[in-house]
Each structure stands twice: as structure tokens, then as C-alpha cells.
Design brief:
alpha/beta; disordered N terminus; Rossmann fold; 621 residues; 3 domains; globular; six-stranded mixed β-sheet
């Protein structure tokens, strides 16, 4: 029968049976673990979380990737791999040997490693968060049976969670209210006001999947939901006016398929003559567990380390079905880009939109990724164990890397520390061509790439990229072979370096502090299975095309960096532990200013891990 979960008093209780009482805290044997997971597969296959007739988990089955028992002398914990069924099929490049090697490497390092193949909902309905909750219930049950379950790696395309947060924010800046209306008011000088408005703060967040005791199911909204907001100006000061004013505006914003962190609850009281008194309500932290609420800075924290190995958004090739007015395709008979001419400008495709998903290219990227992962774990790339920093803002990361990693204390090789507002695209490409094990990238970013100083010399760029460049730019009613945006690092540059064999022999752990660097475009309105979801994703392209193994990044416009990140790596911790450490540090803060004020106190929610969270830095510890 299908598993159904019933919600009562904000607590979800399993009613299908078969899970049993809490497991003992001593790790069960490997065979007992496997038997427990087989039982869970029967219980959760299928799973209709809210009994609406749509199965979030359609099929779940364990697979044998070989002898993957953690080495007795080094046994640490248990790791679970959840794999998309499509990637287990024989279709061109066979990924099963790569997955077996990955599981064997984890076992060698002391992780009991189990793998499940999960077919989850991939239809047109925008319910990604609901499916994440179903997978979370699976992980909750797995944690009961496998008490030392440390984390999960999702391999392939799976739904992601999106977070919207509302906050009651006291600000002081120039402001306009009711713009374009008869009662419009503009304040050219800074003035105190209250802003209480929801915003999308994490286009993707694996905190929900990893936080097993939080109340995320209570704050999930699947359908389109209108969230009210207000802005109230107090020219004499919010405190002086007791938050009472006749200068205000109201409105609503609509979101769908999201988890709502409502730290901006409010009420209002009419005071006569058009004046309203606004009051913040203390009821915050609905997503937090009882344990979270006892923290100095209450926030949700991950119980499991979570990361994703998904090349589907960047495994792209020029569209074979795109032809111009004369029937010409994007590539000529030699396979090189050619000019296409269309009937008019309106019918000319956007240059960024001429790529299509290629399963074979995706599989090639994944096969190369797992080979790189194996070499990195087994002592390869010794000559590339160097730090590197590229920064157009907030200074270089190299001083911190030197300070935290003893082996890099005196590191000062030229070309590894590129910084300044004028750091150019050409410098960035040369920086990527230097071998390194840890890279920090700081630059204004968006879901497609990172802004850098413009390089005017196109020929110099092409030479550095390896001579052949597969890209186009729009010129009127034509698509012309050439460089797209010579002031931005993006997929076409990463892909050219990869395709032309211009990158060094190394595997890299990335810390990417650019705003929205890991955000999948389309998450606000499209299900994860839509072809445009995550299309051309910048950080994923950096990961798969530019020697990446893991990338920790932010999915919101903000200014923070994960505190303690390099320190954890330098003492032998995994990328996942370094990610989780940020939540621990932030939750222990006793001064709100330490965490960026009220607007920033949950900024750890913005960060997630792409790639493999189980990796450590060679030579760390």
C-alpha cells in the first residue's frame, strides 16, 4: 500500500506501520542495515505524503554497488546514496562502474555505504517541496534504523526546496511610498520606516532535507499563496512615533511551492484620522524544533550532511533542431559554429538559449567527475595541492587560507591571488588554468555566472580558451559565432576550457561567495523536471566543467561568508562538516549584530553544497 503521512498539531506521524520503534544507538551490522533499508523501500514505495492521489515517491529500491562495508580500522559512520533511475540504465556511457568505484572509495575511508534508486514525481505539477518532504520522511526513518547515518548524496536530478522569508525590518534610508498613485510620497533624505515584506531567500536549500527534527512540514505551501506586506514611514522616528503613522502602503506578493519562514508577523490598530499603529508580534521560528528554540540565536540546523551531484542543467550541446531562414544549423559540416540569419529580429533566438540538454554529455561530465573524485581521494593531484583566490569584492581569501592550513603558511606563487574591482575575465580564465585544490571565488554573481572586469581583446580570450570557441551572440536578426559577455564568467567559457583541454590536471573544492551563485533559474515558477529549470546554471558549470569536486555557495543576494569553513577543512573535516559548522556558529551567537542583524540571523539557510560533501582536503588535519 502507499505510505501516507497525517499531520496533527504540526507533527507528522507515520501511519503506514512497519518502521518500528527507535533503533538502538549502537550501529547495527552492515547486513542489518541493508535489511532495514529493504524494509523502508517496501514501506515508502510508493509514497503519497498528503493522500492527494499524487505519489511523491513512485518507486524505491536498494541496489548493490559491491562490497561497501566501512573498513574496520577506519569505520566512521554510514552514508546513503540516492540515485536517479535514469543514470543506472545502459545508455551510451555506462555510469555504473563509476558509482561502484565511488561507493568503494567511501567504504575504504570508513563509511558503510548504501545506495537506493529512487523514482520520484517528475510531472508538471509544481510540488517540489512536497517531494522533498517525502524524501525527508524516508531519511527520518533511515536515521532511526541507522543511528550513525551521517549524510546523503543525491546523484542525478531530484526536486529541491525553496525558502521564502518575511521579516519585520526597521530601516533608515531615502524611500518612496505609493509610487505612481495620488498619495505618493517621496523622502529624498534618509528617514526611519518599517518594512515587512516576504522575499525569496533561497532558490535551493538542502537544509530542509537535512534537518530531521524541524517543523518544515508545517510551513510548506504548495499552491500559489498571496503574502501581505506593508511599509510604514515615521519621519520623527519609529520609537518616537510609537510605530504610529499615516504614511504607509500595503500590498501582496505571490509565491508557490515554498517553505515560509515567517519572522515578520504583525498586527495593526487604527488610531483615527487615517493613522495606524503597527506592532511586531514575537511569534517567530515556526520552522524550528524545540531544541532549536533553546539556542541563543534560534535557527534550524542540519542533522544530516546533504549534497547533490547533478550535471543535467549543464550537460548541454548546441541545439540540433534550430535552423535559420535558409535551413542552416548552428554547426557547419566541420562541427564549427556558423552564422545563422533569421527572417527578423523577433524570430531570432536569444544567444543564451541555443543549447539543449544532451544525456550523453551529461553522462560524460558525471563519468569524468567520479574519476576525478577517485583520484582526489586516493592521493592523486599531489602537485596541485595549492590554494587560489579570485576576488572582485571583499578582499582576498588567500590570507585566511594561509593562516588556517599549515602546509600553505608561506604560499606565495604568482597568479594565485587575483583581486580588485578591475580583475578581468582574461585574468579569471588564466587563474582557472593554474592547478589548485581549494579555490575561493568572490564576485558579483547571478544564477548564470559571475561578473568580472571586461576584457576587450576577444582574440586574447580565444587564445587562452584554446583557439576554438563554441558560442554565439545575437546581432539583429543573426546569431553570430563569438564571445557572449566579455565581462562575465559563465558556461560557455567554462565549457570551452573543458572541451579544448585547457584546464590543469587537478580536482578542486570551491567556496563561491557570489550572490545567487547556486540559484537554479526558474525555481520560483517551474517544477524541477522542466527543461528550463536550472538551465545554464553557473556554479554547476564551474563544478563540472572546471575540475570541481564540491562547491559551497549561496542562493540569495547577501554579503556573508560561511564562518569556520576553512578552519574545519584545515583540521580534517569534510565539506559537509564545514557547511554544518556555519549553522552551529550562527546559532550560538548571543549578539544579533554578530549575525548581520535580524535580517541576517538566518543567513546560513542561504547556503548549500553541490557535488560531494564527504570530501576532505588532502593534507588537512
Amino acid at each position: 500500500m502507499a505510505l501516507r503521512l497525517a499531520r496533527s498539531a504540526a507533527v507528522w506521524t507515520m501511519i503506514a506501520g512497519g518502521i518500528g520503534p527507535a533503533a538502538p544507538q549502537t550501529p547495527p551490522s552492515f547486513s542489518a542495515q541493508r535489511a532495514a533499508l529493504q524494509r523502508l523501500c517496501r514501506v515508502f514505495s510508493p509514497c503519497d505524503l498528503n493522500a492527494d492521489g499524487t505519489r511523491e515517491i513512485e518507486e524505491l529500491r536498494p541496489i548493490d554497488l559491491g562490497y561497501t562495508v566501512g573498513a574496520a580500522e577506519t569505520r566512521n559512520d554510514t552514508v546513503l546514496l540516492i540515485i536517479e533511475p535514469r543514470l543506472m540504465e545502459e545508455s551510451g556511457i555506462d555510469l555504473r562502474p563509476s558509482l561502484r568505484q565511488f561507493a568503494a572509495d567511501l567504504a575504504t575511508e570508513g563509511h558503510d555505504t548504501h545506495a537506493l534508486v529512487a523514482q520520484v514525481y517528475a510531472g508538471p505539477r509544481h510540488q517540489d517541496g512536497r517531494t522533498v518532504l517525502a524524501l525527508r520522511e524516508l531519511l527520518r526513518a533511515a536515521k532511526r534504523e541507522l543511528p550513525d547515518l551521517r549524510g546523503v548524496v543525491l546523484i542525478g536530478r531530484f526536486p529541491e526546496a525553496m525558502i521564502v522569508r518575511q521579516y519585520y525590518w526597521l530601516k533608515q534610508t531615502p524611500i518612496a511610498i505609493n509610487a505612481g498613485l495620488p498619495n505618493e510620497r517621496r523622502f529624498e533624505e534618509a528617514v526611519e520606516y518599517i518594512r515587512d515584506r516576504a522575499e525569496l531567500v533561497a532558490w535551493r536549500s538542502d537544509l530542509i532535507l537535512g534537518d530531521l527534527d524541524g517543523q518544515w512540514e508545517a510551513v510548506y505551501h504548495e499552491g500559489r499563496t498571496e503574502l501581505p506586506h506593508f511599509l510604514a514611514v515615521c519621519p520623527e522616528g519609529v520609537e518616537a512615533q510609537d510605530s504610529t503613522t499615516d504614511l504607509y502602503e500595503f500590498g501582496t506578493d505571490a509565491f508557490e511551492d515554498f517553505f515560509f519562514v515567517n519572522d515578520g508577523k504583525w498586527r495593526m490598530e487604527a488610531k483615527g484620522e487615517g493613522r495606524i499603529r503597527f506592532q511586531q508580534l514575537p511569534d517567530e521560528n515556526d520552522e524550528c524544533s524545540p531544541d532549536d528554540l533553546t539556542l541563543p540565536n534560534p535557527l534550524a540546523r542540519p542533522d544530516l550532511r546533504v549534497s547533490r551531484v547533478d550535471a543535467s542543467h549543464v550537460g548541454l550541446e548546441p541545439a540540433s533542431d534550430l535552423v535559420d531562414a535558409e535551413g542552416r544549423g548552428l554547426l557547419d559540416e566541420r562541427g564549427l559554429p556558423q552564422t545563422l540569419t533569421f527572417a527578423d529580429t523577433a524570430s531570432t533566438p536569444r544567444a543564451i538559449g541555443v543549447w539543449r540538454h544532451s544525456e550523453q554529455t551529461e553522462r560524460r561530465l558525471l563519468a569524468e567527475y567520479f574519476e576525478r573524485n577517485h583520484r582526489f581521494r586516493t592521493g592523486g593531484y599531489a602537485e596541485a595541492r595549492k590554494p587560489a583566490s579570485f576576488s572582485t569584492e571583499f578582499g582576498s581569501a588567500l590570507p585566511e587560507l594561509r593562516e588556517t592550513f599549515a602546509a600553505w603558511k608561506g604560499f606565495d606563487e604568482p597568479g594565485y591571488d587575483v583581486q580588485g574591482e578591475g580583475a578581468t575575465l582574461l585574468e579569471a580564465i588564466r587563474w582557472l588554468k593554474r592547478p589548485a585544490a581549494v579555490r575561493a571565488l568572490k564576485a558579483h554573481s547571478d544564477p548564470w555566472g559571475s561578473s568580472v572586469g571586461k576584457t576587450e581583446d576577444a582574440e586574447a580570450l580565444k587564445t587562452e580558451l584554446g583557439g576554438t570557441f563554441g558560442g554565439w551572440r545575437s546581432e539583429g536578426n543573426q546569431l553570430v559565432p563569438g564571445l557572449l559577455n566579455q565581462d562575465k564568467l559563465h558556461l560557455e567559457y567554462y565549457r570551452a576550457l573543458w572541451a579544448n583541454g585547457q584546464l590543469p590536471d587537478c580536482g578542486v573544492l570551491y567556496l563561491h561567495t557570489g550572490c545567487e551563485s547556486i540559484a537554479p533559474e526558474g525555481a520560483a515558477t517551474l517544477p524541477y523536471s522542466h527543461p528550463q529549470y536550472g538551465y545554464w546554471q553557473g556554479a554547476e558549470s564551474l563544478l563540472f566543467h572546471a575540475n570541481g569536486l564540491a562547491l559551497v555557495g549561496r542562493s540569495k543576494v547577501f554579503y556573508d561568508e560561511p564562518r569556520g569553513f576553512f578552519r574545519v577543512l584545515a583540521t580534517g573535516g569534510t565539506v559537509g562538516e564545514a557547511w554544518a559548522e556555519y549553522f552551529a556558529i550562527e546559532s550560538a551567537a548571543t549578539d544579533v549584530d554578530e549575525v548581520g542583524g535580524g535580517i541576517g540571523r538566518k543567513r546560513a539557510y542561504f547556503w548549500s553544497v553541490l557535488g560531494d560533501w564527504t570530501l576532505t582536503v588532502p593534507g588537512g588535519d
